[in-house]
Amino acid sequence: MSKMADNMEWENEAPELAKLEKRNPFTVPANYFDELSQRTQSLIFIESLKNEAKSGFEVPANYFETLQEQINSRLTIEQLTADSESGFKVPDGYFNQLQSSIVAKTKSSKTIKLWHKPLFKYAVSACLVLASTTGWFANKQYQATKLRNTELAKEQLLYDIDESVILEYMQETQNTKTANVSDSEMENYILDNFSAHELSNSL
After folding, report:
1. What would the DSSP string read from start to end of 20-35?
2. Cα–Cα distance measured from residue 171 to residue 177, given in angstroms and rounded to the nearest whole number
3. pLDDT in tens, 75-92
């Protein structure tokens, strides 16, 4: 397609745009490039003047109100630094007397022995008696509780045994043993193996 055909195509699509006058929109004033370097240098000079005017001489806020205090504090600091140049001083003969002064201070300290106080002796004795009594009482209670639990367990076992089983056991033992068993042995056996409650119930 030729260039003329392309132009006619967009002219047909946008007739109003095609009616506008054809001219170059990018124009510069007359002698623009001749004066460009001079104008650039002038702008740079003006900007530098603005920056210098901003820097100026400034003082902090309330500078003159606190000026006397600042001068006095600086003088005091200078005097202190001049005095401290000599360093730390110790009295004459300080290190010669140091050991004897330390020994004198340590010997003058009092040692208090607590055991010589009667109140401390009585307190310790009372604590020992209380601790031993508490231990003995706790042990006795523990043994009594243990014995009671053992007896209850034995009685419970005897309660759980059926009477027929006991009778069968008695018959078997009577059959296996001869009549040589004495009455005292029989009584001991019954007392060892049966509780008083069981014997009263069986009678």
Report:
1. S---------TTTTTS
2. 10
3. 888 888 766 555 667 778
